[in-house]
Amino acid sequence: MRITIIGVGYVGLVTGACFADMGNRIVCADVDKKKIQLLSKGTIPIFEPGLEEIVRRNLNHRLFFTNNIGHAVRESDFIFIAVGTPSKQNGQVDISYIEKAARVIAAHLDQYKVIVNKSTVPIGMGYLVARIIQKYSTGQTPFDVVSNPEFLREGSAVKDLLKPHRVVIGADRREIAQKVSEIYEPLHCPILLTDLKSAEMIKYASNAFLACKISFINEIANMCDQVGADIHQVTQGIALDPRIGDQFLNAGLGFGGSCFPKDVSALIQMGKKHGYQFKILPEILEVNQFQRKWFISKVKQTLGVLKGKTIAIWGISFKPDTDDLREAPSLEIIPALQKAGAHVKLYDPVCTLAAKQIFKNVQVCKTAYEAAKNADALGLLTDWNEFKQIDFKYLKSILKSPIIIDGRNIYDPHEMLENQFIYQGMGQGTRLYSLDQ
Ligand SMILES: NC(=O)c1ccc[n+]([C@@H]2O[C@H](COP(=O)([O-])OP(=O)(O)OC[C@H]3O[C@@H](n4cnc5c(N)ncnc54)[C@H](O)[C@@H]3O)[C@@H](O)[C@H]2O)c1
Known about the structure:
Elements: E1 2-6, H1 10-21, E2 25-29, H2 33-40, H3 51-58, E3 63-66, H4 69-75, E4 78-81, H5 96-107, E5 113-117, H6 125-136, E6 143-147, H7 157-162, E7 167-170, H8 174-184, E8 191-194, H9 196-227, H10 231-239, H11 260-273, H12 280-303, E9 310-314, H13 330-339, E10 343-347, H14 352-358, E11 363-364, H15 368-372, E12 377-380, H16 392-398, E13 403-406, H17 413-418, E14 422-424
Helix pairs in contact: 1-3, 5-6, 9-11, 9-12, 11-12, 12-13
Bound molecules: nicotinamide-adenine-dinucleotide.
Nicotinamide-adenine-dinucleotide binds at residues 6-12, 29-32, 35, 69, 82-85, 97, 100-101, 119-120, 150, 152, 154, 258-259.
């Protein structure tokens, strides 16, 4: 099939590369000239496991990159929109990128095309896209607009795209949704055909529910801290109930990234616009915010005064296996520690350059151990695999004080105790607060 993808970010690039690998002819178009220059040479501007190999395998053969969006529109029968839909200051969705993409599509609509919206958009946006295209095209060329929300996760995006749990395709004409579903047939996955608005809603409902699970387990973890229970054991116990399950129940610093915070905010705002006041959703965001403060207070409690202390930070991306820093807890935690007078040394396996650009007055280190050397405490913010294989004896020998505040609960509190660390996880019981207790 001949497919154009407008917007070559985390979603657009992975979609384009995987669709090309499935045998389609793909043109990926973006307004970002530097990004397209890099991609045209096979250089991937983001960190996403497995992606580079797929791009290189298909480049200039089935996969093409261009800044000429109009040309890209004319080249294909299916036009996927995968541009960003960031939050505005008030939490509403900034739909300006979608609107711009729709206008370009309109201006170059030379024959019948199916416009497939993959971006996460406010419910009803599909109709707005159709109205924009109608208004700015000659009005003579027929087209259809379909919603195909994306569920991939950064860090496992290639796997998620090639082995999806489900593909949702929403259109008011079933035969059009079926046409789009043919693209996904080689994946042999469940394909749900819905109406347009329901497809758009499914994306928000999914993200809000997952965010809710995280905030819920974080509140239970905070309570475990208060009463001396262990969140690991509690989670195991509740997860054995098949109605609850064991996914997405990791207590820690809460969610970040480009999706959950903005999508929950957007749903709250959409509710207001349509006369419905969500009660659960604002609390999900509040708990999420609180987790970061909770972590900072753990550092303060453990270290006492922060002024003049050196704190090593391991991991700054919002989750492992990605370089995405959008809404990452590190963006709030590091400045807060600095504000309290601490000096921060940090290490992240992939975000070195970004760390230097984003954080002021931090020491960006080349290795985890370099960051830990002579630090008064170590704070773990991202659960990269690298941090799970640590030589604890060596770590203890280089830290000034053997204090670890583990924001992601990757270490076993008992092993920490055996290795004589002063260890604080998230919800692992105050009884492990220090060696003296
Ligand atoms: N990142 C994720 O994990 C994820 C997962 C599921 C859904 N989504 C949704 O997918 C959409 C895209 O997210 P992303 O993370 O890939 O965004 P991104 O910011 O990584 O990429 C967006 C790209 O669109 C380009 N762009 C913006 N306006 C354009 C225009 N008018 N024409 C051409 N290109 C344009 C930008 O230059 C950028 O390269 C969002 O709606 C997001 O909510 C994201």
